[in-house]
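Re: weekly structure request thread

Next one in the queue (74 aa):
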Amino acid sequence: MGGMTMTIERVVAFNGLDVLVARDEGLFEAEGLDLRIAPLPPDEIRSAAEGTPSKPATNQGKLQARGAAQMFQV
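Done, posted below.
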């Protein structure tokens, strides 16, 4: 079985804790998956304070939208 690479957008500490623990424990590697976490460029990061309840600011999905990641965390 050949290895496979999967790039995801960065995960947020609490919501993505499962991904971070699985990576650190080697679970992705054990399944032949090279998990890469792509950082968002600093000039594209928006503060949640910029949003409103009806239109929240988000950093999610930007890398996936331009094909730089296969998935993002919701």
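The first helix runs from residue 17 to 24. The CA atoms of residues 65 and 71 lie 9 Å apart.
Next request, please.
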